[in-house]
Each structure stands twice: as C-alpha cells, then as structure tokens.
C-alpha cells in the first residue's frame, strides 16, 4: 500500500491536467499513488490518460457529470494511502511537497493535517512573487507561526489561512468528518476545514511555498459568480457558532454574500429573486450605499441596470481577484 494518495479531480482541462500530473511524477518522495477522477470530460482527457503506463496512476472516469464535490469524493473513496491530498487539475505541487509534509505527519502522530503556503502562477506557469506575497498577507499566512495551530476555528473560518490543495491530511481524520459534503460545487474546501476544526482535529502550519495555485480567465464570468455565491451562502448558512465573535463574523459575511448574489442575479435578469436576497441581508447592510443601489437596480429594466452596474464597477476599487489578475498582467 502506498503511504500517500494524491487525488486530482478534473473536468475538461486536458492541457493543465498533464502539468498537474507531471508535478506529482516529479516528487522527491516516491511512496504515493495518484488517483485522477474525471467528471465526464468531453475533451481529450480519456485518451491522454490512456497513455500513462505508470502503475501508481489510477484513472476513474464518470461518463456523465456528477458534480465537483461528488467527483472529489470518488477519488477520496478510492484512496488506499494513510495520508491524502486533493489538489485541482490546474494547479501544481512543488517537487518537495510530499517529502516535507509527510515528514511532519510522521513525526507528530497527534497532528491530523499539515498546511503550507503557496505560489500564485499564471496560465504560462510563471510564478508571481508580488501577488504571492499579497496573497499570503490577505489570508493571514504571513503572521501564522510554524507549528501546531492555536485557535484553529478562527484560523480556518475567519482568516481562511489554509488552502486544501496545499494541505496533506491523515485519511483517518477525513474519514471522521466524511470528507467533503456531497453536492457542493464551491466553498467545499472552506466547509471541510471548519468541520475538521469543530471536530477537534489538530493542524500544523508549515510556512513554505510548496504548492502553486493558478489564476486564469476560466475563473471569471457572471454565471460562475452566481454559482459560487449561491454555494457560499449555503456554506455560511450551514453553521452556527457558540462564540459571539465568530457568530457575528459569520452573519456579517452571510449578509455580504447575499447582497453580492442578489446583485449578480439582478444583472442576470432575475430581479425578484435578487431583491429577496438583498432584503434578507438587510440586518447588516441596511443603509449601505451598495444595498440601496441594489434595491433600486432591481426595479429597473435589465439593459439600464446592467449599464449602471458596469459604471459603478469602474468607480469602485478592484476586488481581490481583480487585483491579482492586474498584477499578473503587468
């Protein structure tokens, strides 16, 4: 049995997938198996996977699309390793990732998972040091000390410092919480970390850049934003915390996500649905300029509301994802 199972879920990303697989083959630690789970790709992924003859690589193909988290679960359920990592088909592991992270789990039997920092890369696989530094600061990793993490729930929920693709888990810890919940397409990684923290699991942070996360154009678009925000709302509604500070943070983020989803739905022409979400968020957003604008837009004809939204976006500061892409385009 291999010590580590590496799972790479994929869907219609043949070119990026080959790069992800190459990063596993290049690991300095060799006691691994790779499970590629394919969510019904319609490109050349099946043909490409047939060319791999390495017995450590297994390919699970779903003939129809079963959904992101369900596809990930199929890789998790097929795993035989004591340790487990899932990273996306457009990302990469650095050559020393498995050696360094597995050594920590070997040395610290009470640690359930070890997370690392990561590079940001572009479509040409180029690392962006400036964006990487800003990313580490945004998610609090720049001030997270090496070693066992205190206040884990705050770190994974408020700071959101851990990234699932840059984390090696004990399979037994994942089994305790049944890995990722079925039928989530987005925020399934945040959800997993919160459930692990609530279950009393122990995390270790290794402040090394041992994974590469890719920003690219496929991650943009109105319909993608709607799906992401709808799942984010569902994720934030799922939990309720005992601590006053944590619960206040959750409710505030839920209201902001409802407001943003409402705006996106109005932009897509679903005015009534969008207006209802904005009204739900009113406990925290009442009186804000954004909430007032959103309600007004919901009563306007679609062409006019889209025009006003585009003008408003040009006036407001770029959000985090836009800032990263601007940095990469310099």
UniProtKB/TrEMBL annotation:
Positions of the Glycosyltransferase 2-like domain: 5-116
Pfam families reported in the protein's UniProt record: Glycos_transf_2
Alphabetical list of PANTHER family matching this protein: GLYCOSYLTRANSFERASE (PTHR43685), GLYCOSYLTRANSFERASE 2-LIKE DOMAIN-CONTAINING PROTEIN (PTHR43685:SF2)
Protein's UniProt name: Glycosyltransferase family 2 protein
């Amino acid at each position: 049995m291999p010590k580590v199972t590496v799972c790479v879920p994929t869907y219609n990303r043949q070119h990026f997938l080959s790069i992800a697989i190459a990063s596993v083959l290049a690991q300095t630690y060799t006691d691994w198996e790779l499970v590629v789970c394919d969510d019904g790709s319609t490109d050349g992924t099946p043909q490409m996977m047939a060319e791999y003859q390495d017995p450590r690589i297994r390919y699970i193909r779903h003939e129809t699309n079963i959904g992101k988290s369900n596809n990930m679960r199929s890789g998790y359920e097929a795993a035989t390793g004591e340790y487990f990592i899932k990273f996306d088909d457009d990302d990469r592991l650095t050559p020393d990732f498995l050696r360094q992270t597995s050594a920590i789990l070997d040395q610290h039997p009470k640690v359930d998972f070890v997370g690392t920092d990561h590079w940001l890369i572009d479509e040409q696989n180029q690392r962006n040091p400036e964006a990487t530094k800003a990313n580490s600061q945004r998610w609090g990793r720049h001030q997270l000390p090496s070693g066992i993490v205190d206040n884990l729930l705050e770190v994974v929920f408020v700071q959101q410092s851990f990234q699932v693709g840059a984390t090696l888990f004990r399979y037994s810890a994942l089994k305790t919480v049944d890995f990722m919940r079925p039928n989530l397409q987005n925020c399934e990684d945040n959800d997993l970390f919160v459930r692990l923290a609530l279950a009393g699991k122990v995390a270790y942070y290794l402040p090394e850049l041992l994974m590469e996360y890719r920003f690219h154009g496929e991650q943009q678009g109105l319909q993608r934003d709607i799906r992401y925000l709808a799942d984010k709302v569902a994720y934030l509604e799922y939990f309720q915390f005992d601590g006053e500070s944590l619960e206040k943070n959750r409710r505030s983020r839920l209201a902001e996500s409802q407001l943003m989803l409402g705006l996106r739905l109005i932009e897509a022409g679903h005015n009534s649905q969008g207006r209802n979400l904005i009204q739900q968020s009113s406990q925290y957003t009442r009186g804000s300029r954004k909430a007032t604008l959103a309600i007004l837009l919901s009563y306007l004809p679609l062409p006019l509301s889209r025009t006003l939204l585009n003008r408003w976006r040009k006036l407001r500061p770029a959000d985090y994802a836009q800032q990263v892409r601007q940095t990469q385009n310099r």
